[in-house]
Amino acid sequence: EPEVTQTPSHQVTQMGQEVILRCVPISNHLYFYWYRQILGQKVEFLVSFYNNEISEKSEIFDDQFSVERPDGSNFTLKIRSTKLEDSAMYFCASNWDLNTEAFFGQGTRLTVV
Amino acid sequence: AQKVTQAQTEISVVEKEDVTLDCVYETRDTTYYLFWYKQPPSGELVFLIRRNSFDEQNEISGRYSWNFQKSTSSFNFTITASQVVDSAVYFCALSAGGYGGSQGNLIFGKGTKLSVKP
User: Fold this and answer.
1) Cβ contact, residue pair A56, B98, below 8 Å
2) Which residue from A70, A92, A95, A113 lies 20 to 30 Å from A6 (Cα-Cα)?
3) What is the pLDDT of residues B77-108, one digit of tens each?
4) Long-range Cβ contacts of A100-104 (<8 Å, 24+ apart)
């Protein structure tokens, strides 16, 4: 069964460093998303991406964040200068149509020290 | 504004008990979608069900059933004869229907942690 794949599963980084979280969405999907879940809290929308551009972004997704689809398969989230409060689980998701269910990857646990 | 409320933070039951997880939503959209996702201890988010706002039929899938009531803006989830493997955090979520803008983006509730004890 097709699945969304995220790498790495766990990333530890020092405050102020740049990190890139990687995702391979399901191959025939057209819409891509990043969500964040701070430990023990709810899942929060960060950004949606379609047709090689951002469709919408939340207040969390400030200038420190960027997304890119560098080729036909990868979808990346970059955090330029990480802060302690960026520590969270980051989920990538995709769907083939806006009105269908999104399938989530396993998540990347980012720890900023 | 869209909002999803899961008032039950934690529920603990004994195996074989039935349990209902509550979800109340707020939206001004006439077309919208409701979802339930399961997050087991391993951390991934597993899709369980999607309903659109025009389909109020209840749905049953094995031991799982869902009760959608537009009149009370609720989309409750019942597990019948619970099992230890059902232990997880369950999230209810809402998205606007149609195309463009915020459609497709999921607004999650805070989740209900279900513990099923043997």
Assistant:
1) no
2) A113
3) 999 999 999 999 999 999 987 665 567 789 99
4) A100/B50, A101/B35, A101/B47, A101/B50, A102/A31, A102/A33, A102/B47, A102/B104, A102/B106, A103/A2, A103/A3, A103/A4, A103/A26, A103/A29, A103/B47, A104/A4, A104/A35, A104/B37, A104/B44, A104/B45, A104/B46, A104/B47
